[in-house]
UniProtKB/TrEMBL annotation:
Family classification: Belongs to the short-chain dehydrogenases/reductases (SDR) family.
Subcellular location: Mitochondrion; Peroxisome
InterPro entries, per the entry: HSDL2, NAD(P)-bd_dom_sf, SCP2_sterol-bd_dom, SCP2_sterol-bd_dom_sf, SDR_fam
Keyword check for tRNA processing: no
Domain SCP2: 314-405
Lineage of the organism: Eukaryota, Metazoa, Ecdysozoa, Nematoda, Chromadorea
KW Kinase (keyword) present: no
Protein name: Hydroxysteroid dehydrogenase-like protein 2
Amino acid sequence: GMSKFSGRTALITGASRGIGKAIALRLRKDGANIVIAAKTATPHAKLAGTIYTAAEEIEKAGGKALPFAVDVRDEANVQECVQTAVNKFGGIDILVNNASAISLTGTVDTEMKRYDLMHNINKRGTFLMSKACIPHLMKAQNPHILNLSPPLLMEPRWFSNHVAYTMAKFGMSMCVLGMHEELRPHRIAVNALWPLTSIWTASMEMITHGEGAAGSRTPEIVADAAHAILGKNSAEYTGNFSIDEDVLRAEGVTDFDKYAIDLSVPLSPDFFIPAGKYDHCFAQSKESKASPEPFQQAKGEIGEVIHTMKALLSADLVKKVDATFEFVLTESSGADKVYLDFKNGSGFIGEGLVHGGADVRFECTVANFVKMFKGQLSPTAAFMTKKLVIKGNIPKAMILENLLKKMKK
């Protein structure tokens, strides 16, 4: 209830929008003071929300907020932010390291200024903010640091397509691995929290050009999970790499439909989710499972898929996607290749390969190809469960996936 976080102060980085803001609003509901430490003080061209609009939302809801324009890369600025928070609220009880930069690019395509941005915000920023808050957390009654970062899975598939981003996110998780042990004597809990599914936020919208909503959940699921973690005894609950749904199930939550954006579509797993363990979570909740089809039948259905897709091609679609895709379908004579051109004119789909190589290459079985195009298998789920290999431009693959979801409606 209201008392749980009453009088406690939470400093949340990147809280002007998205997951950070959802966590801020959730803790505010239980009486926490919120320090909105984010860089957007003037409105961003493509993303809604500033530290002031977020603070206003919190104050409207009857809470106390301190908007502070902070660049987590700047040591003096970070120290000033923390000191201002302590002066206003008397201390810091909770630090949520949520600020993050993302670029899903391979080695050659990652500009060094993007590399530096990701490493300076995600990894160095998390380290610096923690360092600045620790002296104050030591005085708190139930001190917590929570990093929005993934479980440390040393599998090539999480590195091969976007090694720079993965290193930066895993750096945040390494802070958890080190600091939870280091700070145990001071009973400061240090945990990581990561969503099971993709979460629909303004930055996701920017990455997928508005095509990523269908298989996603709302930020509230992460906020509810963060709220649960931050309410736990800091001397006991530390060093965990938690997944939002697991945390909430342990709290007795059974209704996850309320977090879905579109119940008719299978959920898309987030990056860095371990294979196998969560497969059952990504089923389409409102439709029956299709029985696996015999191979010959599936083969005939490739033609059907191509036929269906042809009807959907349009110049508008081409403008939205602007990429070429090829599917290499295994378990046959090796001649099964399908390509989609969503780059030129009003698009094209046919058998064979894209001349000069496609932007994205998918490798899977014929049966799974058909299932994906029929909406019985989410491409992300197929990728996570190793039924689908994806090479090339990952954001474009996400755009294609979300178009497929829309087609199913």
